[in-house]
Write a structure and sequence with these properties.
Elements (H helix, E strand, L loop, with lengths): L1 H30 L2 H33 L4 H4 L4 H34 L15 H30 L7 E8 L2 E6 L34 E4 L1 E5 L4 E7 L4 E5 L4 E5 L5 E5 L5 H8 L6 E5 L11 E7 L1 H10 L3 H5 L11 H12 L2
Parallel strand pairs: 1-5, 4-10
Antiparallel strand pairs: 1-2, 2-3, 5-8, 6-7, 6-9, 9-10
The chain binds copper (II) ion.
């Protein structure tokens, strides 16, 4: 009820202000207050120029204060990211020049060509030459930008080089699951009805022979510096979005429709810590698509390491198959019986 009342009050206030403004306008016309109108025009002209100057000062101050804190100043951390930054800079330069020219003309003309009794307006209805110029120049500029963008898009989402590693990324409310294909370099097939939060978070079909060495990790993904990595993205529930700001990549993770992109990291996490002067620096994988009430916390870490460190890490990983069937793990001690019964009970959920 109070909501309706407040809306009604606001509407009422607007109506009153509108009526007062209208009334005072009629009054000044009736009084013939030509002078006051001219005065207002002058003030408006000055305000326009003041707005222009203050606006540019504001842009400069904000840029000075915040540019250094942006990731743009930090530089991209992948080969693909450098191309994205290049496109962004070219776009910013072109649009920046257009912005400055049009804003200066807009506000300066508003001041310069304010009402003047001694000046007559020059009127012309049409100029083919002008129309051609202001159609052709933006069309050519935009075509060049779009062609560059498309070329890069097909590059990032196309086939990666032969030596690329592949990681499957699955989004879930609210976190990330990473799957490595193991020694055979082939992912086992999966089926969503096989999903079991405790032992089989992506629904791997264990009967598939390729599935036996698949490795699952959560929240942290390891990749190798200088080695292309292809990501196969998917989701277990709603639409998520893989956002890799440091690598300048972003792609939706959609349930049932795998999407792909690939990139080549150029700095290890350690190198990036030195480069940024931030000892806690971590490459982030964030969800860039509002996906529910825990969306804000849907973050993971990407560890970029060199090949040796990666091999060491990989050697420590145990195929998920042995987590699902501990009794089949050759390295396990024979206390696994109890584990396998708990597995059966959880699998019923
Ligand atoms: Cu999400």
């Amino acid at each position: 009820m109070s909501l309706y009342l407040s809306v009604a009050i606001i509407v009422f206030i607007f109506v009153v202000i509108f009526q007062i403004a209208k009334a005072s306008e009629y009054v000044s016309i009736l009084k013939g207050e030509e002078a006051s109108r001219q005065q207002n025009n002058k003030i408006n002209g000055f305000l326009m120029v003041a707005f222009l100057v203050l606006g540019f000062i504001g842009i400069y101050v904000c840029n000075k204060a915040y540019y250094g804190k942006t990731q743009l100043a930090q530089g991209a951390a992948s080969v693909q990211g450098e191309k994205v930054d290049e496109m962004l800079f070219v776009t910013l330069i072109i649009t920046g020049i257009v912005f400055v020219i049009t804003q200066v003309l807009l506000f300066w003309f508003a001041y310069k060509y304010q009402e003047d009794k001694n000046r007559k307006v020059f009127f012309f209805a049409h100029s083919t030459k002008l129309e051609l110029i202001w159609t052709a120049i933006p069309a050519i500029a935009l075509t060049v930008l779009v062609v560059f963008g498309l070329r890069n898009w097909f590059f990032f989402t196309g086939e990666p080089p032969k030596n690329a590693m592949v990681v499957e990324v699955t989004g879930k409310q609210f976190g990330w699951i990473f799957r490595y294909p193991g020694k055979d370099a082939v992912f086992g097939k999966k089926y969503y009805k096989n999903i079991d939060p405790a032992t089989n978070s992506v629904g791997i079909i264990w009967d598939d022979t390729y599935s036996k060495d698949d490795i699952l990790t959560e929240q942290t993904m390891y990749v190798v510096k200088g080695k292309p990595v292809k990501l196969i993205l998917g989701s277990r529930d709603v639409i998520h979005d893989v956002g890799l700001t440091h690598f300048r990549l972003k792609m939706d993770a959609v349930p049932g429709i795998p999407t792909t992109m690939w990139f080549t990291p150029i700095y290890t996490t350690k190198e990036m810590r030195e480069k940024t002067g931030n000892p806690n620096f971590a490459y982030e994988i964030s969800c860039d698509q509002m996906c529910g009430n825990g969306h804000y916390s849907m973050k993971g870490v990407i560890e970029v390491v060199d090949q040796e460190e990666y091999d060491l890490w990989m050697a420590k990983q145990k195929p998920q198959y042995f987590t699902a069937f501990p009794e089949k793990d050759p390295s396990a001690v024979p206390v696994v019986k109890a584990d396998s019964t708990t597995k059966v009970t959880t699998a019923k959920m």
